[in-house]
Design brief:
The complex is a heterodimer of chains A (290) and B (266). With 290 residues, chain A is an alpha/beta fold. Chain A contains twelve helices and ten strands. Helices cover 42% and strands 21% of the residues of chain A. With 266 residues, chain B is mainly alpha-helical. Chain B has two domains: 151 residues, no CATH class; 83 residues, no CATH class. Helices cover 68% and strands 3% of the residues of chain B. Chain B is flat, with a radius of gyration of 23 Å. Classes of the chains: A alpha/beta (290), B mainly alpha (266). At the A-B interface, helix 2, strand 6 and helix 3 of A face helix 8 and helix 10 of B. The structure holds adenosine-5'-triphosphate (ATP) and magnesium ion.
Chain lengths: 290, 266
């Protein structure tokens, strides 16, 4: 087990009149190499949850184990935990401060003591892993890039630590469709080719359908659903009551089924749906001929 | 965690008689109280003040323990005051060691000053805890507007204060977020010597400044696109009006303060 949460609870501003329970008895287990999507209404505690994965927040009750290490222990190697579990914040471009993209991406590995040739290799690899041309961007100011490029540099600046898990808090928020697609494709590639554990917080089931195998649905600080993504779409009405809307493909499948077509509800992508419909049409034709 | 929490005396939105009082009344009350607390010299007055404060706090639906938190950041100052008075007041010595000595007068004076400071802080905190920043600046603007005649920029001052107060929590939240983001990138705030530590702040301060300038720009545009052009002829959304409970409060508190002041003069 790579990341394990046991009965984790967390309250902001405890002991004040403004105290706010953000997590309540959360149990979660994440294996190496998994790709997980976390969804839920705004304010349900997703960002709070992911900050527990790399010891930025320590649970007030319960336990978080990362690779067997309890994050709340006094001498816990927090820096090593943060290297293992790379966390890309919401709007990560807000954290830029260096003059060049190279320095920006080199910041994290430098903090971990990486230097010289190894450092340059890491930076080159990370920038290329997010689909940027190393030579073309390395001397630019991170502030002069386009929104999509900034986001990718921000992701590269975490990848350069060579994390074993990559946690992204709404990685596609505020991007155009093309920027979204590029980032998602690169993430899928990383997960497949390097066995990277991928944890993505998102409001878009459409996006998650492209990258995640497993879905965790949160509501008011609790986990309400945790299963294979195909299981989600068989419960369209229930998840809609939690403020989550399945991708258009799943909604179409649902409507087709209501109209008496026996299509599978577990369709994720437009391709799968098209194939499913084609199959049904062929079946009907055959039935008519026969 | 220094996000939304640490703001000393941050407004706590509750519904209580004290919260509902007119901000002008509260500001004037606090102003006069501060003067009064400086005039008073005897324990009995402070005891009465303490009782008054406790009744105000219970009226405000805040817990007394929460109010006491506002003393915490000033604890050092209070202790220092205490120590200085203890050791450096001449009088009848009751304890001596080398050049150090404590006098009877020192003890009573030290305690008196510390209690006075505590009361000052608590009364002021009670104001900021029960009055939203918007109300507070509104009240200030009203109270200062008579001075407009002599060119005093009451509206501009109030607007500046409103904006500053509005953005303090935002800024703290942002600082918290950026600190966490850089920690996620392996930043270690407390490593190295003094120079290294100062350098460690760059990854925090640069993004904070960049984002603040961006935000200021956006705010200016937002204000202009809503035709803001200063205070002249501007009407108000919330018109402050004194209610009967305001008058009761004023009457009661002023008789209390006048009584105490007279007592110490006579
Ligand atoms: N630093 C903080 N101090 C106090 N309360 C906080 C803080 N951060 C978050 N909260 C509160 O905790 C709750 C959970 O917040 P969180 O950011 O985890 O939600 P979220 O699911 O990520 O929401 P979103 O989709 O809007 O990002 C919210 O009600 C939020 O207002
Ligand atoms: Mg969030």
């Amino acid at each position: 087990m790579f990341i394990k949460l046991e009965k984790v609870s967390f309250t902001y501003l405890p002991g004040t009149p403004l105290a706010l329970k953000a997590l309540e008895g959360v149990d979660l287990e994440i294996e190496r190499g998994e790709s997980i999507g976390i969804v839920g209404r705004t304010g349900c505690g997703k960002s709070t949850l992911v900050q527990h994965f790399n010891a930025l927040l320590i649970p007030q009750s319960g336990k978080v184990l990362v690779d067997g290490v309890d994050t709340s222990e006094k001498g816990a190697p927090r820096q090593e935990i943060r290297r293992k579990v790379g966390l890309v914040f919401q709007y990560p471009e807000d954290q830029f401060f260096e003059e060049t993209v190279f320095k920006e991406v080199a910041f994290a590995p430098r903090n971990l003591g990486v230097e010289g040739k190894t450092l340059e290799d890491r930076v080159r690899w990370s920038l290329e892993a997010v689909g940027l041309n190393f030579e073309a961007v390395k001397d630019k100011s991170p502030f002069e890039l386009s929104g999509g490029q900034m986001r990718r540099v921000a992701i590269a600046s975490i990848l350069s630590m060579e994390p074993e898990a990559l946690v992204l808090d709404e990685p596609t928020a505020g991007l155009d469709p093309e920027g979204k697609r590029i980032i998602l494709n690169q993430l899928v590639k990383l997960q497949k080719e390097r066995g990277l554990t991928l944890i993505i917080v998102s409001h878009s089931m459409e996006d998650l359908a492209r990258v995640a195998k497993r879905i965790v649905i949160m509501d008011k600080g609790k986990i309400k659903f945790d299963d294979d993504i195909r299981q989600v779409f068989s419960k369209v009405e229930w998840i809609e009551s939690l403020g989550i809307f399945p991708p258009v493909t799943a909604q179409v499948a649902w409507l087709l089924r209501e109209k008496g077509f026996d299509v599978s509800l577990g369709v994720l992508t437009p391709q799968e749906l098209a194939e499913e419909i084609q199959l049904k049409i062929l079946e009907r034709k055959k039935a008519n001929v026969g | 965690m220094w996000g939304r929490g640490l703001v000393v005396g941050q407004y706590v939105p509750l519904d209580s008689p004290i919260h509902r009082l007119d901000p002008r009344v509260k500001i004037v009350f606090v102003g006069v109280s501060i003067i009064d607390l400086f005039i008073l010299q005897d324990w009995f007055s402070f005891l009465l003040w303490g009782i008054a404060l406790i009744s105000l706090v219970s009226l405000s639906h805040l817990s007394f323990g929460y109010l006491l938190r506002s003393l915490r950041p000033l604890l050092f100052l209070l202790l220092l005051t205490m120590v200085l008075h203890l050791f450096f007041t001449p009088g009848e010595y009751i304890w001596e060691y080398g050049f150090l000595h404590i006098s009877r007068e020192g003890i009573s004076k030290g305690f008196l000053i510390v209690v006075r400071l505590c009361l000052l802080i608590l009364v002021t905190s009670l104001l900021t805890l029960t009055t939203s920043p918007v109300e507070l600046t509104d009240g200030m603007e009203y109270l200062l507007s008579p001075f407009k005649k002599w060119g005093f920029p009451a509206h501009e001052l109030a607007m500046m204060m409103t904006i500053a107060l509005r953005f303090i929590p935002t800024l703290l939240e942002e600082a918290d977020r950026i600190l966490k983001a850089q920690m996620a990138r392996g930043m270690n705030l407390d490593s190295g010597g003094i120079i290294q530590r100062a350098k460690n702040l760059i990854p925090l301060l640069v993004p904070l400044f960049v984002n603040s300038f961006k935000r200021a720009d956006e705010l200016a545009i937002a204000m202009e696109s809503r035709c803001y052009r200063g205070g002249k002829g501007r009407t108000r959304l919330r018109v402050l009006e004194l209610t009967s409970s305001d008058y009761y409060f004023l009457a009661l508190s002023f008789s209390f303060i006048v009584f105490l002041s007279l007592r110490s003069f006579l």
